[in-house]
Amino acid sequence: MNAVQSDLQQLRIKLILFKSKVRSAVYGGSPDHEFLSANGPVSQWFRTVGTSQYQNMPELGTMQRLYKELQTAATHLIGLYKADKIEEAHEGLRDIEKLSEQLTRVISSLEQRLR
Question: pTM, whole model, 2 decimals?
Fold first, then answer.
């Protein structure tokens, strides 16, 4: 596995964990606010690896925008759950999945281009 593949695989794994943390929070688990925050592992990846290795790639901006949308959606769903709008929060997981799929496609596109 080369450096690009490794970098982007790290991001994919962090995104899977992100989705898992959101799902857990809207199914009654304690929200991991630190993980989901601007200081969490995905955000750190963008600040460190993303900006140092891929800052000149147009995909990076798209990836960052999609991740911010994911963060906003996650915060909203957790808020819905806390407000006892549990069904609405569960239904909102579809939005998390859609955004995550979009982000994953952009990551794959970047990976393909850099091969």
Answer: 0.93
